[in-house]
Design brief:
Length: 137
């Protein structure tokens, strides 16, 4: 059957963070004459570079793009000049972190003395995928 895998992370945005690959596959073996054309636009409406691996014999086009920032991305797919059903796709790349699950402990969070070592811990288990940044002011 022809179409696009609607469950692909490149179409759902599930679990994708900026810098992650966002892949999806278009199946067009039974779609008739023509070729798929894919365009991806970022939140700033500028086109993104995409990587396509088009297997004409199998009628499969594997596509991958890489979101650079959080926000809404648009994926436009046409075949023989006609938009695929549900195209353009709106993909929301959003943080997947639950900050309520982050826990901290240690004396370095409440009292510090000049030239005296102290410590603190940040527990991020179960909060989701992301990068921890710590600033000491």
């Amino acid at each position: 059957s022809s179409g696009i895998n609607q469950q692909s992370t490149g179409i759902t945005g599930e679990g994708i963070l900026p810098g992650d690959p966002a892949p999806f596959t278009i199946s067009y073996k039974e779609a008739g004459r023509g070729m798929p054309k894919v365009e991806v636009y970022g939140p700033d409406h500028q086109p993104l570079n995409i990587v396509e691996d088009n297997d004409k014999k199998e009628g499969l086009c594997k596509v991958e793009y890489q979101p650079g920032v959080f926000g809404e991305y648009t994926v436009r797919i046409t075949y023989a000049g006609l938009p695929l059903p549900n195209s353009p796709y709106k993909i929301n790349i959003k943080p997947t972190v639950d900050v309520n699950k982050i826990k901290t402990e240690g004396p370095g969070l409440t009292r510090c003395k000049v030239d005296e070592p102290t410590w603190f811990k940040v527990h991020t288990g179960g909060c989701g995928k992301g990068e921890l940044n710590v600033q000491i002011l």
